[in-house]
Specification:
Blueprint: E1 2-3, H1 5-20, E2 27-34, E3 38-45, E4 48-53, H2 54-69, E5 78-82, E6 86-90
Antiparallel strand pairs: 1-6, 2-3, 3-4, 5-6
Length: 98
């Protein structure tokens, strides 16, 4: 499963909104990749800037997968990737219930 850059941004918006008890639409996110620091995100909420490192981004993605897709993914199963945009590769087998 692959999450697009927009879904990663949504995941971070929902995660930060829940933590700060504000509306997701009041959170702005910009994703970055740098050769020295790797993946990061700048979050603007309530007029304050906050920077998230890759592990914080993966935590938000884990929560998003659980709430939006009912998929329990572990940190080791999520890999951020950069092609034309930043995406998240999720290595989980989706189990169907019968």
């Amino acid at each position: 499963m692959i999450l697009s850059m927009d879904e990663i941004i949504n995941a971070i918006c929902l995660h930060m909104a829940e933590r700060k008890r504000i509306r997701p639409q009041d959170v702005q996110v910009e994703l970055f990749w740098d050769e020295d620091t790797g993946y990061s995100a700048e979050v603007v909420a309530e007029g304050r800037n906050q920077y998230l490192v890759e592990s914080n981004m993966i935590e938000a993605i884990m929560r998003y997968l659980q709430s939006e897709y009912d998929i329990r993914a572990y940190r080791e199963q999520i890999t951020l990737d950069l092609d034309e945009e930043i995406t998240a590769q999720i290595d989980v087998e989706v189990q169907q219930t019968y």
